Amino acid sequence: MEWIPLVSTALGAAIGVGSTLLADRARWRRDRAGQDLDVRRQLYADYTAALSRIRTALNECVREDIPAAERPRRIREAFTTPGAYEIRHQLAIVAPPEIVDAARSAFVVLRDTRDLLVAGASVDNAAYAELEERFDAAVAALRTVMRLDLGAAKSIAER
User: Fold this and answer.
1) Rounded to the nearest 10 degrees, how much is the dihedral formed by the CA atoms of 21, 27, 30, 34?
2) How far apart are CA 37 and CA 48, in angstroms?
3) For site-directed labelling of 26, which of 17, 83, 113, 149 has its Cα 20 to 30 A away?
4) CA pair distance 6, 8, nearest whole angstrom
């Protein structure tokens, strides 16, 4: 009968250690999920800001009085400087597929805009205006899927 207290002590210790391990694991998962959300939130903000900087830089290149021979180089430089390429690669690693697809769609519109401007189009060109509208729509769609991924279902504009 001396083994009963020993077994009950061992069983109590096992239950105590097991419950502590389960609680620690649950806390770790919760903390990790919060960190992942913070990383995605920052990447989403960085990417949409980079897209905005590209758009502004392209517009400035077209509105400035740049010699025709230098214009394509300046436009390409303005396109790559904000770092959207790099952030897109980071998004491809951590973001869900619908975000990656929407991010690519917005980027492609800007790339098409860059190519049109390199070819000599001006801001008065109808094709340029159409690309501007497509970009606005692509960024709105991107922000919508980003907000859904972050748990903010409604758009700020809809409130």
Assistant:
1) -130
2) 17
3) 149
4) 6
Separation of CA 118 from chain center: 27
The 3-class SS string of the chain reads CCHHHHHHHHHHHHHHHHHHHHHHHHHHHHHHHHHHHHHHHHHHHHHHHHHHHHHHHHHHHHHCCCCCCCHHHHHHHHHHCCCHHHHHHHHHHHCCHHHHHHHHHHHHHHHHHHHHHHCCCCCCCHHHHHHHHHHHHHHHHHHHHHHHHHCCCCCHHHC
| Single-letter residue type at 11 | L
Rounded alpha-carbon distances, angstroms, from residue 90 to 83, 93, 122: 11, 5, 33
- Our CA angle for 88, 89, 95, nearest 5°, is 75
pLDDT in tens, 88-108: 999 999 999 999 999 999 999
Q: Rounded to an integer, what distance in angstroms lies between the CA atom of residue 24 and that of residue 26?
A: 5
Give the whole-number percent of the chain exceeding pLDDT 70: 87
**Token pair recorded at residue 30:** 């919760």
Cα four-point dihedral sign 72, 138, 41, 24: negative
- Angle of the 71-80 helix axis to the 97-118 helix axis, nearest 10: 170
Q: Which residue is it, tokens 């061992």?
A: 10
